[in-house]
Amino acid sequence: MKKVLVLGAGLVARPLVRYLLDQPDFKVTVASRTVSKAEALIGAHPDGTALPLLADETEKLEGLIGEHDLAISLLPAPLHPVVAELCIRHKRHMVTTSYVSPRMKSFDQAARDAGVMLLNEIGVDPGIDHMSAMRIIHDVERRGGKVVSFKSYCGGLPAPEANDNPWGYKFSWSPRAVCTAGKNSARFREGGKLVEIPGPELFACNHPLEVEGIGTLEAYPNRDSLGYIDLYGLDGIDTMFRGTLRYPGWCRCLKAVVDLGLLDETPVTYPAGMTWGQWMARMIGADSTANLRKAVAERVGLDAEDDALGRLEWLGLFSDEPLPIVEKETTALDVLAARMAEKMPYRPGERDMIVLLHRFVAELPGAKKEHISSTLIEYGQPDGDSAMARTVSLPAAVGAKLILTGAIRDTGVHIPVRPEIYNPVLDELESMGIRCVEKTETA
């Protein structure tokens, strides 16, 4: 009997937990700060256990890790190294869907010495993007070719029929995490030239992208694309770009949000009775809420009738409604994220959508050039699992199963860029309807 410890019971956890409970001879423990959420994931399944666990209960966490064969951390990314160290100490495997941090990477030799695997970046982005890209890259190389351009895009969005608010966005995962990602700087290579975008200018760097079956979306850079050149074995590539997808208008509005300081994480206490309008006036240094929309527009260099200002007004940021967070230390970012969570949820029966698109240019023997695309469009299940939850957690669940059943025997810190990992994971995802459609045009 294999024992799996799932740390966290958030928005993406359900498909993973249910998948693991469906495996023969698996027992699953879900430990969460909110034990009721863990209990809801387990239900009445006889092989499932729900336990309360706080982030600072390190001794209890260590005991749980020691009692299980593998830990899946769905906790906030800064907590993964804590879990990793305990897994290495007790010679237990670990899986996460998060990016490999420098600290996580530093555990590689210790994990090898302990004979355990720390498998990271096995969600959707990062995760399915790695696996689907590497399958194509390795195929091009097998045919004697070379990838000279690679552009990869991914976004979690409302399905077209659910895209009915001015922001073109609803939350199937943490609003704070979405906002925080908007503070990242970015680097990529375009036509052999390095392009560097500082965090405050991230949303000013965007372009339209046509996606078959969806229409025009908006793309902006996602972090540092250059690290993927070595990771994917694409030395000398002319173009390397990784981007995030949103519906049109998102970037213009988020640029205003950034310029207004609404993503600031400086601790502050707001007085009782403060309204949203007063909060916004305070953010721009205005003495009153009179002509607030115009004052905000002037602050960010936009016309008062600009659509970006309309989105902020729809969110209620110019209103006389009271702030929901008062008389305790918080941040502007947390206040904004709380408002977004309140105003931009999915309603019952609505579907979300994941769009993942790769575009390659490959040079092959005989001066032949191929334009290859790989597209995944996954929709959520009405009143069921979201597309975000399925595409983030099911790859991790499959990876965990493969480790525990001995199908993957690597040790150390890994991401799924090797065929021994990505082929069985992609094959099983396809059996669950999560499939990338590839097309090739020859020039």
Protein model, in words:
This protein is of the alpha/beta class and 443 residues long. The protein has three domains: 2-123 and 389-433, NAD(P)-binding Rossmann-like Domain (Rossmann fold, 3-Layer(aba) Sandwich); 128-251 and 347-384 and 438-442, Dihydrodipicolinate Reductase, domain 2 (2-Layer Sandwich), CATH 3.30.360.10; 267-330, no CATH class. The protein has helices at residues 13-21, 35-42, 58-67, 80-89, 102-105, 108-114, 128-142, 175-181, 227-231, 250-259, 276-284, 292-300, 307-314, 332-343, 387-404, 419-431; strands spanning 2-7, 26-32, 48-52, 70-73, 93-96, 117-119, 146-158, 186-190, 193-197, 207-211, 215-221, 239-246, 268-269, 329-330, 352-364, 368-379, 412-414, 437-442. The chain has a seven-stranded parallel beta sheet, with helices on both faces. The protein has a seven-stranded mixed beta sheet with strand order 10-11-12-7-15-16-18, with helices on one face. A two-stranded antiparallel ribbon has the order 8-9. The chain is globular and about 65 Å long. The mean pLDDT is 95.
Q: Keywords, please?
A:
16 helices, 3 domains, alpha/beta, globular, 35% helix, 443 residues, Dihydrodipicolinate Reductase, domain 2, 7-stranded mixed β-sheet, 7-stranded parallel β-sheet, Rossmann fold
